[in-house]
Write a structure and sequence with these properties.
It is a single chain. By secondary structure, this protein is α/β, with parallel strands linked by helices. The protein has one domain: Deoxyhypusine Synthase (3-Layer(aba) Sandwich), CATH 3.40.910. Helix content is 46%, strand content 11%. The protein is built from 16 helices and 9 strands. The strands form 2 sheets. Strands 6-2-1-7-8-9 form a 6-stranded parallel β-sheet, with helices on both faces. Strands 3-5-4 form a 3-stranded antiparallel β-sheet. It is globular and about 70 Å long. It starts with 21 loop residues before the first helix and ends with a helix.
C-alpha cells in the first residue's frame, strides 16, 4: 500500500477488562500507534518465525541475566523458540550465579557507592551482587572449569559455553536455573561475541600466568555462524539491545555474500528491541533497513520491526505472547550439527576453482 494515502486500519477506542489475555493485549498494542504498535507487530512477527520453522537466533546485550531474564531465555530454548544465541560474556558469567545459588538482590540506584564499596557490594543499576559470596565464588567456579585440564586445542566460544553448561549441569546446586545448562541439554550453540571483555576471560588470567595457553578460533566461529544461516531455509534474529551481539548475528550475510560470494542475501526476519538512537551512527542504533545496504537482510521493506523500548519491559511481553499461542517446536540441535554445516559451506565455497587457495599456493 502507498503510505502517502489515507488508508489503513481504523484506530479502535481501546477498552480493557480483567479477562483479557496476553494475546488480547498484543492485539491492543498492534491496533494502536507508536512503540505500542511496534511491540504488537514484533510479537506477531516472532510468532510468524516460529510457525515457518525459521532458524531463530537470539542476541542478548546489556545486563539481562542479573535481573533474572535468563529464566525467560531458558523457557524459550525448551520450547524450541530459540535455536542459537549470541551474547556477552557478562550475561553468561552472571547467569551461572543462579545455578550455583550465589546471592543477587534487588537494591537501589539512589545510593552512595563509596558505602557500597565499603560493604563489599557491587552494583548494576539497582541490582546488588556480593563481592566475595557471589563474584569471588563464581570466579573460583570458572577457574576450576577452565583450568589446566582445559584442552590446548583451538576452541570456539560455543564449545566454551557448552562445556560450561555441562559442568554446571553435573555439579551446580540448581542446574535448572540457567539457560546455559538448558542450551547444553538442547544443543543450542551459545556464542560470546567478546569473551575477553568479561570476567570469563579475566579468570583465565591466573592460568595464563602459569603458562597455560588458550587458543580461541574466532575465525572458525564466525564461519560457523554464517554456515547456520547458509543452511537455513528461513532465518531470523530477535535482538535484545544492540552492541556486538547484534552485529555478530547480522554480519553473517556480508560474510556469505561479500566475502564468500554465496549470494545468500542475509536474514529473512529481524526484531530489534533497543533504546539507542539511529542518528549517532552507532551500530546499536542503526536501523534494520540500513542493514540491507550491507546485505544483512533480505528485504528492506518487509520482515523487520524495531521497538524503541527498554528490553526489560518489552522482552517478557514478546516472549509470553509466543509461549501462549505457539506449539512447542522440535529442537534443531544445531550444536551437534555445526561441524557438518561448516563442512557444507566449505565444500560449496571450494567448488569454484577460483577459490581454491591451497591449489594456487602450490602452483606458485
Amino acid at each position: 500500500m502507498d503510505p502517502h494515502k489515507f488508508h489503513g486500519k481504523d484506530i479502535p477506542h481501546i477498552k480493557l477488562d480483567e479477562k483479557m489475555t496476553i494475546e488480547d493485549l498484543i492485539n491492543v498494542f498492534a491496533s494502536s500507534g507508536f512503540n505500542g504498535r511496534q511491540l504488537g507487530d514484533a510479537a506477531k512477527l516472532y510468532a510468524k518465525m516460529i510457525k515457518e520453522n525459521a532458524t531463530i537466533c537470539l542476541t542478548v546485550s546489556g545486563a539481562l541475566t542479573p535481573v533474572g531474564f535468563g529464566g525467560i531465555i531458558k523457557t524459550l530454548i525448551e520450547r524450541g523458540f530459540v535455536d542459537w544465541i549470541i551474547t556477552t560474556g557478562a550475561n553468561v558469567y552472571h547467569e551461572d550465579h543462579f545455578a550455583w545459588g550465589l546471592p543477587i538482590k534487588q537494591g537501589s540506584f539512589n545510593v552512595d557507592d563509596m558505602k557500597l564499596y565499603e560493604n563489599e557490594i557491587v552494583r548494576i543499576r539497582d541490582i546488588y551482587i556480593k563481592f566475595y559470596e557471589t563474584l569471588e565464588a563464581e570466579d573460583q567456579v570458572i577457574q576450576k572449569m577452565f583450568g589446566i585440564d582445559f584442552p590446548d586445542k583451538p576452541f570456539t566460544t560455543a564449545e566454551f559455553c557448552n562445556l560450561m553448561g555441562k559442568m554446571s549441569k553435573e555439579n551446580s546446586k540448581y542446574p535448572e536455573k540457567s539457560f546455559i545448562t538448558a542450551a547444553y541439554e538442547y544443543d543450542v550453540p551459545v556464542y560470546i561475541s567478546t569473551i575477553k571483555d568479561s570476567s570469563l576471560a579475566l579468570n583465565l588470567a591466573v592460568h595464563r600466568l602459569a603458562d597455560k595457553t588458550y587458543n580461541l578460533d574466532f575465525v572458525r566461529e564466525i564461519i560457523e555462524q554464517a554456515a547456520i544461516l547458509y543452511d537455513s531455509k528461513k532465518s531470523g534474529i530477535v535482538e535484545l539491545g544492540g552492541g556486538v551481539p547484534k552485529n555478530t548475528a547480522q554480519q553473517t550475510g556480508p560474510l556469505l555474500d561479500q566475502i564468500l560470494r554465496r549470494n545468500n542475501g542475509g536474514q529473512d526476519y529481524i526484531i530489534q528491541i533497543t533504546d539507542a538512537r539511529p542518528d549517532t551512527g552507532g551500530l546499536s542504533g542503526a536501523t534494520l533497513q540500513e542493514g540491507k545496504s550491507w546485505g544483512k537482510v533480505q528485504d528492506a521493506h518487509n520482515g523487520m520491526v524495531t521497538v524503541y523500548a527498554d528490553a526489560t519491559i518489552a522482552f517478557p511481553i514478546l516472549a509470553l505472547y509466543v509461549l501462549s499461542n505457539q506449539k512447542t517446536r522440535k529442537p534443531k540441535r544445531l550444536y551437534k550439527k555445526i561441524g557438518k554445516l561448516y563442512d557444507n559451506l566449505k565444500d560449496d565455497y571450494f567448488k569454484n576453482p577460483a577459490n581454491n587457495i591451497k591449489k594456487s599456493k602450490k602452483d606458485n
